Amino acid sequence: MNRKPPLKPTRREFLSTTSAIGGSLIIMGTKATAGIKGANDRVRIAVAGLNGRGQSHIDGWMKADNVEIAYAIDPAENVLQKRLGSIEKKADGKFTTKGVADFRDALDDKSLDAISVATPNHWHSLITIRAAQAGKHVYVEKPMSHDVAEGRVAVEAQKKYGVVIQHGTQRRSDAGVAGLHEALKSGELPRLKIAYGYCCKPRGGIGSKSPGTPPSNLNWDLWKGPAVIDQYHANYHPYNWHWFWETGNGDLNNQGTHQLDVARWAIDDDQTHPVRAMAIGGRFQWDDQGETPNTMFSMAEYPNGQMVFFNVRNVNYKDYKRQVYNEYYLEDGSVITGESHYQILRPGAAKPEGLKLSKGKVTPGGNWNSFIAAVRANDPSMANGNVLDAHYGCVLGHLMNNSYRLGHEVPFSASAGQFGDNQDATLHFNKLHSIMADGVGVSEKDAKYRVGPMLTFDPKTETHTGDYATEANRLLKNPSNPGFKIPELSEV
Fold first, then answer.
1. In 3-state terms, what secondary structure has residue 289?
2. CATH number, domain at 156?
3. pLDDT digit string (tens) for 286-297?
4. Do residues 356 and 468 share a domain?
5. Which parts of 248-399 are beta strand (E)?
6. Which InterPro entries match (predicted)?
């Protein structure tokens, strides 16, 4: 195919995104163009990234009322054709979907209302930003950003162009989860001390793949896009890109983004970013070429003293306990567990009791239909998981990952955790260590932990301060290839 010019908005694109069409909505000081005229009008959406999660996007939009999948987008021709056939069969003549390799071909269509992003992580923000500049609403998979800096640009793009941006964190559409967090913040429950998230699901190693030539049906230049990668190998496509820093963020900001977002959601509303964050972990059990940790304990502290803990454990062994959920530790010693429906173990109680709470405020319809409702209303405030919530939750994970990446190796032992006088962190790290030592069988003689520094962070400037600031600030923005650069804030 012919290569597109660099990703820079043309004058026509700029004018089309700043002109008013019909009514308008004031959102954070800016006007949003009204693309959908009424609740009964068809929403035309493009789906970018058709493997794995992209199939879920297709299924979700196909079930939504009066939604047309106008474009299917993927740089792998075999995947694109397979999905086009599936969409055509399900559409049953109601609409025709155009297949393209480059998302910019879809954004050029003035009649397109929205784009749904299910690409690898390194593409999420760039498509989100360019879509906003083209006046298109965006449903973007988690994590919205691959690094801290590009997440901020996405926030500013939403502010300027007023489009709906909804993050693919489905628990934001759960009124039960919302109700618990409202109760924690209203004083109905004792004050939150620690919000704890787990991403512990069994996975295996990915082996090692030698550098080689990309398959003929894959447009490799388009697939890697912004990611600076020296050479193709078969572990990048279609799924294992998650475990390389150039393209993914490990399971902390993959599956873990859901539980990280829930944990941050529970923190007081006036808190944005943590002021301190650190992580310890490693890549145990597997002998492969993956870079991200499969085992991690991390912590972050907010200005008000509330904390988020997180546990990644993706190894596999006999009697493995899958844990993909959240816990809440309160200042009075109570512990809340569950998801949507909860139990509380109060201090001194022999067993937990059911926790009866009112449902919280969410836009109804689940994650798919709530987005369509927000698009039809042209109201970004209706998004279940808006651009700011997405940014704050993603940054939390990025800071933890960056601490890990700057870490140094120490012997695998319970004394490896360096948490100062934080007894809670020591306790929970020791639980993880016991599982790895006794359950997995990791031994001190043949394994090491990577211990990250305690990074300090300024929530207002979104930069690191203090020790390791120079090294940590380099990780706030990934390098990118010419033609696929994230715009500077001044260019939004």
1. coil
2. 3.40.50.720
3. 999 999 999 999
4. yes
5. 276-282, 295-301, 307-313, 326-330, 335-339, 341-345, 353-355
6. Gfo/Idh/MocA-like_OxRdtase_N, Gfo/Idh/MocA_oxidrdct_glycsds, GFO_IDH_MocA-like_dom, NAD(P)-bd_dom_sf, TAT_signal
